[in-house]
Amino acid sequence: MERIDAHLHFTSEHPDYAVALAEWNLKLLNTVGSVEHPLWRERLAEPYRRLAQAYPERFGWITSFDLPGFGEREYHERVIARLGEDFANGALGCKIWKSFGMGLRDAAGAHVLVDHPILEPILSFIERSGKTLLMHIADPQGCWRPLGPDNQYSNFYSKYPDKYLYGRTDMPSHAELIASRDRVIERHPRLRVVGAHLGSLEYDVSELARRFERQPNFAVDTSGLARAVDLGLQDRNRVRRFFEDFPDRILFGSDVNVELHAAETPESRRQALEAMRSAHQSAFDFYETDRTLMLRERTLQGLGLSEHILKQLYAENARRWYPGL
User: Fold this and answer.
1) Which of 36, 39, 217, 263 is the most buried (most CB within 10 A)?
2) Regarding predicted confidence, which is higher, 234 or 17?
3) How many domains in the chain?
4) pLDDT of residue 33
């Protein structure tokens, strides 16, 4: 069965990887992650573009844009011009990261959410261009919940307390961030929007279903094994019914990260390929089988989705929501 990984970060340009992807019948859609590093274009976007041009049958790519500096003249013109170049060079869409709402502030010190007017000319350009907007808005809801056995993200936030927002009154709530994205989707009904990581509504497929029912231009990707765990922790029959009710709105993604290193060796490439294969196989087992699985130290039962749904999840939906892939 053909598979497209519609959300990962892969920069190594060694031909060994293209050979392995052909053997696995797997295509990768590279998505720019954080744009907060000043060299994000050189380190991410440019390798993604080169891979898509060198191996179009194995790679596609999604670009992004620099964060605004409030008071910066000609910001919109510069961003739109660069996006136009990227789209002409094969970028299938544009990604907005969680800096909007969880980091960026305006000149007065207020948080800049994704529905801020400063983004409107850019969003309208993406819409007019017929490209897709990939939105990673908000961390998992566990970032705002008490730590403990009921919060599968407790281990992560215990290690990174600076990222943990439970009880913080100086940051937007999870609900406020999601509402800002909802406003963008509804304000631009002709703009295709994909919500990364199950749209940051990983904790309840009913929340996603309600949005799918009122937002026909909205889909989500499953990127990351953590999100498979989120699905596996919910009522299995309800999750299966969600996939059956919305088979054309869910894209497979792994969120795997494979970076190019100057000291890359045949052995390091072998290890990277094995780690990548293992991550994908764990996800495939969850979606394809009804076996009892161990994912991220959680014992879960696979969903055992039908072949009809799997074909859409793995490939057809990626092509539907990213035309030209």
Assistant:
1) 217
2) 234
3) 1
4) 85
